[in-house]
Write a structure and sequence with these properties.
The chain is an alpha+beta fold and about 210 residues long. It is about 25% helix and about 20% strand. Among the domains are: about 5-85, no CATH class; about 100-160, DNA Binding (I), subunit A, CATH 1.10.30.
């Protein structure tokens, strides 16, 4: 298949990949999604009806319910938003890299001491066990804290500061949509992604994290 070079911006946009159990496992480009469907590696999921279509049926639908189209010489193809793998039914075990951005997403822009939620400017990263006492910079020892709680805790342990964690910090599983910019996540993906993850990533994008 030879797509028009000038439509590459559409082809490079995102498409969600789900497995046979309807669980998100990856995010790919529209270009790769169309090729996978054309090769019968995957099928297109119509997000409004949840019907699954092979390539032939997908391109012949009178109203596919999409807003993106791939246009070329003599053809117009609706760009898939969600595709389902034909065979794969597992969930890949990807570890999220420890970064400031991912930590903000894991803790949902919420202070892990008082539960106050705020934007990136009002949150900071706190070492549960202070570095001066041997605490490591890791998923298991770092949490988000609001300015007030961070100042209260300072260079002390939880017991010394009289604080308690909302939940024990741990290493999260990597979500395929976690690192996407808000404009790359489509409303149709809400039917396939947990609401709490969607809300956390949307909140982070909106506040400029």
């Amino acid at each position: 298949m030879d797509f028009d070079y000038h439509r590459r911006s559409v082809l490079d946009q995102s498409a969600l990949v789900i497995n046979r159990s309807w669980i998100p496992v990856h995010v790919t480009t529209v270009r790769r999604a169309v090729i996978m469907v054309y090769q019968d590696i995957a099928a297109v999921v119509a997000a409004d009806t949840l019907q699954v279509h092979d390539f032939e049926h997908w391109v012949s639908l009178p109203e596919p319910g999409v807003t993106r189209w791939i246009r070329g010489a003599g053809y117009v193809i609706p760009a898939p938003e969600v595709i389902q793998l034909r065979i794969y039914d597992r969930v890949p075990a990807h570890e999220a890299p420890f970064t400031r951005k991912n930590l903000y997403h894991r803790d949902r822009f919420t202070c892990q001491y008082c539960g106050r939620r705020g934007n990136a400017d009002r949150m900071s990263i706190d070492h549960v066990l202070p570095k001066s006492k041997g605490g490591r910079t890791s998923w298991e020892n770092c949490v988000l804290a609001c300015v007030r709680c961070n100042a209260r805790k300072a260079d002390r342990t939880l017991h010394e500061a009289g604080l308690r964690l909302q939940r024990k910090p741990s290493r999260p599983r990597w979500s395929p949509y976690l690192s996407l910019a808000g404009g790359d996540r489509l409303p149709s993906w809400r039917r396939f992604t947990p609401d709490e993850v969607w809300e956390a990533t949307e909140f982070g994008h909106a506040t400029g994290s």
